[in-house]
Design brief:
Chain C: Pathway: Carbohydrate metabolism; tricarboxylic acid cycle. Chain C: Its cofactor is [3Fe-4S] cluster; [4Fe-4S] cluster; [2Fe-2S] cluster. Chain C: This is Succinate dehydrogenase / fumarate reductase iron-sulfur subunit. The complex is a heterotrimer. Chain A contains eight helices and four strands, in the order H-E-E-H-H-H-E-H-H-H-H-E. By secondary structure, chain A is mainly alpha-helical. In chain A, about 40% of the residues are buried. Chain B has 18 helices and 20 strands. In chain B, helix 1 links the parallel strand 2 and strand 3. Chain B starts with a strand and ends in a 13-residue tail after the last helix. In chain C, helix 3 packs antiparallel against helix 6 and helix 6 crosses helix 9. The chains are: A mainly alpha, B alpha/beta, C alpha+beta.
Chain lengths: ~270, ~625, ~250
């Protein structure tokens, strides 16, 4: 167990693991519930290999973008089909792992899951249930330092999502169309960009690594902007989880014919 | 009880780890000496952190017209020409170098557009002169000096393998006695607060940098440490104090809630546009501009307001008069029944600056009011009133070296006297710390190269006995020290406070006599480990001795000047200007007062002033030597 | 306007101790430190508690109140319900001296191990030129009052005494960040942050930021940017390759 009451070190002998009287266990609990639910949903959907595309409006769910499996319908495969169509390989297997890694190494999610799933610590000033702690000093957690490379890839994938969202304005007959699905796809992409831009690595790369802002006025401005977004990184992290799930669910519902898209134009 | 005394030997011992003490220690170490720093609280917690506004130095970064002569004139004017003019001269000349030096230690002051140290306006200063970091300049200063100490320790570590081989901080250690042999300093004696063990430092040179005496008052901006330890140690060692009647009551302390009564509201609030209003909403300071300042201050609100943006063509608003004037004005308004609900006046910045601007310029004030009083200063006015803030008086020292009349005993910072005369300008205390901290460190280091008198065994034994007195049976009928302290504070606050009267002060002296007997016999329970009762019992006698000096000197001086206001002698009297009141100790709980003539100012310094101005302060015959 | 409140204060030393109950009078506008002082002046003359400025500026009165690391002088009694028990205990990460006072030497040791500001060569005092935008980041960190609440709360040492050797804690990693971002500091502090001061032990769970009474964004503005600067140096494959190929 942990050494909050380490007697040999001369610490005050207070038996309680914490003397906090507030509901400190609530935030980790909500995190476990929220993240857990999302992971279950995303896993089911990634392996479903169905209801990911609405051909008449060109709606492609971000969970299947880019659709590069031989199993993809041709219209949805904007970048060719080359992955084998087997049940254990999601159609977007070239992007999903990186998106997962981008979020897994994200400074906000790290805080959330270290606290909620690993109890390290469960909440501030609440003793953690582990006897040993080495943080991110060794393998595998030292790999968290690769966050910025996943950030670069995630930015590329956001470009793909943007392409998908733009392409969805053109219906299968080549004419312009606008429906609720378009609005959802665009909103999702905007949120994804905000989340990606608010990344701590982005903040560092764009200007944080400089020591003389005054000599780089443009980068300084960009840094100020990113810093402002960065302060909302947690909110954006949750907002994008929600928007991804909503976008995907919407496409699924329309694709499965459970309800039809609310059309505004065309 | 354990009577063992741990012994250390040093070249220079600095008592006090505020700005002056740390600067002295840095200098002494740079001179190659082995130095100990003794701090009553933890290293880095000294009262210097409370200084908010800035550090005055005529760098001329914001207004190039500024120079040491202007600063010198402002300082003398602020002190009503009672200052030790040589100290004021050295201070004005050396302050810029001391500030620039801090940057080489890593300080990060706010900047001007061209990248220099920014300077702000403050009461009594002709030009924007205060180097600052928002409103937490004191913290920056203490942290910078603390980090310089660490840097010197790292240098020593490279050579000796021990960080503390030549410069060591003994914190949570209180010195209770200075030890002399053959009339010279031989060392000092004290105890560690955490476990109560006794300790003795043998050193031929000791620098006192213990700060002020405010804890003798009920409403004060000072922390528990400010019990006049240095003042009292010096007195008991045979040194003298001067100017003890001059106490600065900062005009703007918090008045509500009661638990924070006295905590400082920085003058920068007024420097940045804050105005004082009474319960009728009137900017009353316009009614309180004294004759000597009539020419320098605006007479209408419009002119005062223009000054913030165009200081060259307008006179400054009277909210920025020297602190004593503002404190007295607030006092009068409250007495006349025009005060705020909790007995202060309103300080309004909310209606004068945009909320963002307030947050940027006065972040820690916003924080302080929000968290302590639940007041949002961007929306509501603050309630403020005078609080005991600074003692101008202190140990009488040689202006150049900082040495007292006791060979080997030096003093710098608030616990030394003379520099600020009868009233200190805001911002001059931080620069004072640096200038005279360095000087005392330098000369103490030089002095330590002379003879090293041995500490006498009997003196140590006597010190041990005195320190243990509150535990011994000799004090069986003794009282709780907290009770005696409260009475002392009440006595000083009510009878030797901001406005003084002869009969009240005589009563105060009688009361102090009674408190003296009780102080000797206070009794404490328990053990020596971190026992606040015991600590207070020992500090109490310092507070008593200092209070006696304040009361006696205040009774003696029959005029009003700077930080000394007599109800029965309301005007400044030129015949008193050249007289210094000198205190010396008669045993542990009595003091003696003598008069001393101030040395006349050097002619070329005298000539820096216009004759017309000097006439307000000097007697006719004193003006004979002026160039005019 | 006063009422009675139930206080529980930990009394004891390294030999052991316990929570003692005190009924105590509380007046309007008071903070926890006022109540501790009232106890000292009445029932518990020898109750040990560190304090100085009583205005949240010196960082001396750090304790744990109802289990949360806080400054006693900045915790208003009005934040508790009238019938709520207020439990005051010493910081749990440092050795206790007596009652509410702990031995915070750990922090001074770590402070000494951070190499001091390295002045730029050939720049005389008075010649330092820095732009406000360039000093602002470090200025935020210099608001630190060294109350050590972050050091106390960080689970890396709070729950693991053995990490004290390798890990300097948020306060001193922030000090390194402060110097690394200083526009004129001549030293390089990236390797040192990782290798000598244990930046890798930080798992950015943000408790330091949560307890900071100065509201310094320790994690977002100091620790994470410092981690990123270390990545620039140590985990960037291009930099790594360059170092391999062109060593010396």
């Amino acid at each position: 167990m942990s050494s909050t009451t380490d007697m040999a070190a001369g610490r005050a002998q207070i038996a309680a693991r914490t003397l906090r009287t507030d509901r400190w266990w609530l935030p980790p609990l909500l995190n476990v519930a929220g993240l857990g639910a999302w992971v279950v949903y995303a896993t089911v959907r990634a392996f479903m290999q169905n209801w990911y595309f609405v051909p008449e409006y060109n709606y492609l769910t971000p969970f299947y973008s880019p659709c590069v499996s031989n199993g993809c319908v041709e219209q949805a495969a904007h970048f060719g089909r080359f992955l084998p169509d087997v049940w254990w390989l999601p159609y977007a297997a070239i992007s999903l792992p990186f998106l997962l890694l981008f979020r897994l190494t994200c400074y906000y999610y790290r805080k959330a899951y270290y606290r909620a799933f690993w109890g390290s610590p469960p909440a501030c000033a609440v003793a953690e249930p582990h006897g040993k702690y080495t943080g991110e000093t060794r393998f595998p957690l030292i790999l968290q330092n690769l966050h910025r490379y996943f950030f670069y890839i995630a930015a590329l994938i956001s470009l793909l999502n943007t392409y998908d969202a733009v392409k969805a304005f053109i219906k299968d007959d080549g004419s312009f169309g606008l429906g609720l699905g378009n609005i959802i796809l665009v909103a999702n992409v905007v949120l994804l960009w905000l989340y990606t831009a608010s990344c701590h690595s982005c903040r560092s790369i764009i200007g944080g690594r400089l020591n003389h802002f005054s000599k780089h006025p443009v980068r300084y401005k960009a840094w100020v902007g990113v810093s402002r977004l960065n302060a909302k990184h947690m909110q954006l992290a949750w907002a994008t989880l929600a928007s991804l799930a909503i976008t995907d669910a919407y496409v699924m519902c329309v694709s499965a014919g459970w309800f039809s898209d609310l059309r505004i134009v065309g | 009880m354990d009577r063992n005394v741990e012994t250390h030997e040093y070249d220079v011992v600095v008592i006090g780890a505020g700005g002056a003490g740390l600067r002295a220690a840095i200098e002494a170490r740079l001179q190659g000496k082995r130095v100990a720093i003794i701090s009553k609280s933890l290293f880095g917690k000294a009262h210097t952190v409370m200084a908010e506004g800035g550090c005055a130095a005529s760098m001329g970064n914001v207004n190039p017209n500024d120079n040491w002569m202007v600063h010198y004139r402002d300082t003398m004017r602020g002190g009503k020409f009672l200052n030790n003019w040589r100290m004021a001269e050295l201070h004005a000349k050396e302050a810029p170098d001391r500030v620039w030096e801090l940057e080489t230690y890593g300080a990060l002051f706010d900047r001007t557009k061209d990248g220099k140290i920014s300077q702000r306006n403050f009461g009594g200063h002709t030009y924007p002169r205060l180097a600052h970091v928002g409103d937490r300049t004191g913290l920056e200063l203490i942290r910078t000096l603390q980090q310089k100490i660490v840097s010197l320790q790292q240098d020593d570590h490279k050579v000796t393998g021990d960080y503390q081989s030549h410069l060591r901080v003994y914190h949570e250690c209180t010195i209770t006695e200075l030890l002399k042999t053959d009339g010279r300093i031989a060392g000092c004696f004290g105890y560690f607060r955490n476990d109560g063990r006794f300790v003795r430092f043998d050193a031929p040179a000791i620098v006192l940098a213990t700060g002020g005496v405010g804890k003798s008052y009920q409403v004060t901006s000072n922390s528990w440490e400010y019990t006049g330890d240095g003042h009292a140690l010096a007195l008991r060692a045979g040194a003298t104090l001067i100017n003890m009647e001059f106490l600065q009551f900062h005009p703007t302390g918090m008045v509500w809630p009661p638990s924070v009564k006295g905590i400082l509201v920085t003058e920068s609030v007024r420097g940045d546009g804050g105005v004082l209003r009474n319960s009728e909403g009137k900017r009353f300071m316009f009614d309180y501009i004294p004759d000597v300042f009539k020419e320098q201050y605006a007479t209408t609100e419009e002119e005062g307001d223009r000054w913030y943006t165009d200081p060259d063509n307008n006179r400054r608003p009277p909210e920025l008069l020297p602190r004593d004037e503002v404190a007295r004005a607030i006092n009068s308004e409250v007495k006349a029944g025009r005060g705020s609900p909790h007995g202060g006046v309103f300080l309004d910045i909310a209606s004068r600056l945009k909320p963002e601007e307030i947050l940027k310029r006065l972040p820690s004030m916003h924080h302080q009011f929000k968290e302590l009083a639940d007041v949002d200063i961007t929306k509501e006015p603050m309630e403020v009133g005078p609080t005991c803030h600074y003692v101008m008086g202190g140990i009488e020292v040689d202006p150049d070296t900082g040495m007292s009349s006791v060979p080997g005993l030096f003093a710098a910072g608030e616990c030394s006297g003379g520099m600020h005369g009868s009233n200190r300008l805001g911002g001059n205390s931080l620069s004072d710390l640096l200038v005279f901290g360095r000087r005392t460190g330098l000369y103490a280091a030089q002095f330590s190269e002379g003879a090293r008198p041995a500490v006498a065994r009997e003196d140590v034994d006597a010190a041990v006995e005195r320190a243990l007195l509150p535990f011994t049976t000799a004090a069986e009928q003794g009282e709780n020290p907290f009770v005696v302290q409260l009475e002392l504070q009440k006595c000083m606050h009510e009878l030797v406070g901001i406005i003084r009267k002869e009969d009240e002060m005589e009563m105060a002296l009688k009361k102090l006599e009674d408190i003296a007997t009780r102080t000797r016999t206070v009794v404490v329970e328990g053990h020596r480990e971190f026992n606040p009762g015991w600590h207070l019992a020992l500090d109490l006698r310092n507070m008593l001795l200092v209070s006696l000096c304040v009361a006696k000197a205040a009774l003696e001086r029959q005029e009003s000047r700077g930080g000394h206001t007599r109800d029965d002698f309301p005007v400044m009297d030129s015949d008193w200007r050249h007289i210094l009141l000198v205190c010396s100790a008669l045993g542990e709980d009595n003091v003696e007062l003598t008069r001393k003539e101030q040395i006349p100012m050097r002619p070329e310094l005298f000539d820096l002033f216009e004759l017309d101005e000097l006439k307000k302060y000097y007697t006719g015959e004193e003006l004979g030597g002026h160039r005019a | 306007m006063s009422h009675w409140h139930h206080f529980r204060v930990w009394r004891g030393d390294q030999g052991g101790g316990k929570l003692e109950d005190y009924p105590v009078e509380v007046n309007e506008g008071e903070v926890v430190l006022d109540i501790i002082h009232r106890l000292q002046q009445t029932e518990a003359n020898d109750l040990a508690c560190r304090w100085n400025c009583k205005a949240g500026k010196c960082g001396s009165c750090s304790v744990e109140i109802n289990g949360k690391p806080r400054l006693a002088c900045m915790t208003r009694m009005s934040t508790f319900a009238d019938d709520e028990v207020v439990t005051v205990t010493p910081l749990r990460t440092f050795p206790v001296i007596r009652d509410l006072v702990t031995d915070v030497e750990f922090n001074y040791v770590k402070a000494r191990e951070v190499p001091a500001f390295a002045p730029p060569e050939g720049v005389a005092p008075g010649e330092y030129r820095m732009q406000q935008v360039d000093v602002e980041r470090s200025q935020e960190f210099r608001k630190c009052i060294e109350c050590y609440l972050c050091q106390n709360t960080c689970h890396a040492v709070r729950d693991h005494e053995e990490n004290k050797e390798a890990f300097s804690g948020p306060r001193y990693l922030m000090r390194i960040a402060e110097l690394d971002m200083h526009p004129l500091d001549a030293a390089d502090r990236k390797d040192m942050a990782q290798d000598d001061h244990g930046l890798g032990y930080c798992n950015i769970t943000k408790c330091c930021t949560e307890v900071c009474p100065e509201h310094i964004k320790i994690t977002d503005n100091a620790l994470i940017p410092m981690k990123e600067r270390v990545v620039d140096r140590k985990y960037d494959p291009i930099v790594w390759l360059g170092n391999k190929l062109f060593r010396r």
